[in-house]
């Protein structure tokens, strides 16, 4: 079991480094935008990217999940048919979607921005449609790299994409004086780069063979993930369009900039997710698979809760940190700092859902997933409409947290009925219970702004509490110690 955990850890590190580096590089744009753009412009970017996220799911309609499943099976693993058939299907449907968006651009622009901003939205829609097209065509080759354990190549392309995006943003905005249209032009060029770099991978595996049997199997497995994907995306982005309608672009801009700082927890979840999906599919038939999954769940929750506490009690220092006279978050956006801990905790529960989703993949029970995700999305939408009028942007943040808690709970109870794993429930409850206690402490202290050493003390006490509650055992500490010593010795010998 230890070897399997080491394998997952190794792949998580490879994907994780690229994800952390990539997201960190991308994060540079947040202080840049918040010090350049006014909140209204930031609101327009946030609103349109929310819809891009939704339409990205429509463009792919579950074929990513389908190919991930088909490509992992032995009878299809080395076949060009699954790769080619799925890619051809995505090309045809994506071209149709782009054509439809082009025809309906005037109507979509008015829907998004009303008469006041329809012209600006119309200009940006063309860029957005082509971004969606290129990203859809990159899905299959990217998954192919993951299935072949080509984590380094996958990671390098992702990071290069982000570097190009950032470089063009800086050049177009600072060098050419462009506005928010530069954000979308930069994204489009970066997406085109990824597609071009993946072309050799496509040429190597592509053949003009549209296998109907494979496509039908892919559609059968993948299409249920369309409503599931839409529901999941709704939970990630629907708060923004609703907030825009109820509170305006100014509030949305402030919310969006602060919401993005929750990315630090999302980094952790993404690192895990990229390695987790191929890992559990390959490990599922091993005799000790369920024991491995149980330990992974505990360790994921433990590490995530510590990240949550660390970020929550240092967030003010992070936000006010200055580089070349500019703070990480422009002063016009500081009124939204208080939502960040809620977003961090929401992403942690999202990670629990990602972990629990393994059972549905393993047993190929994709049909119930859309229902559960749809319930979560409906809860999110309803709570946004209820809470935003009273709490403003905090209402939107709480709606995200509530929906992810609901999703993690329903997935836990439902998946246990057909793929029972003996999770360490007592430890999980203790970890999450202390995390909720800490967020309450944060808001009690938020108004009085205690000295920084108080926050540091609370961070240091957190693992001590978990040790006293026997969440962290002596044996586990010794195992970690041995692993660290072993790594140190290997590094020393290598020198």
Written account of the structure:
By secondary structure, this protein is an all-alpha fold. β1 and β2 form a beta hairpin. The protein folds into two domains: 1-36 and 238-448, no CATH class; 63-222, no CATH class. Helices cover 83% and strands 1% of the residues. The chain has 23 helices and two strands. α12 (239-247) packs parallel to α19 (368-391) and α14 (263-283) packs parallel to α17.
- Following the backbone from N to C, one meets helices and strands in this order, namely HHHHHHHHHHHHHHHHEEHHHHHHH
Strand order of the largest sheet: 1-2
Structural class: mainly alpha
User: What would you call the shape?
Assistant: globular
Major sheet details: 2 strands, antiparallel
How many helical elements?
Answer: 23
Distance between the termini: 30 Å
In total, the number of strands is: 2
**Poorly predicted ranges (pLDDT <50, ≥5 residues)?**
none
Pick out its properties.
single chain; two-stranded antiparallel sheet; 495 residues; globular; 23 helices; mainly alpha
Write a short abstract of this structure.
The protein is an all-alpha fold and 495 residues long.
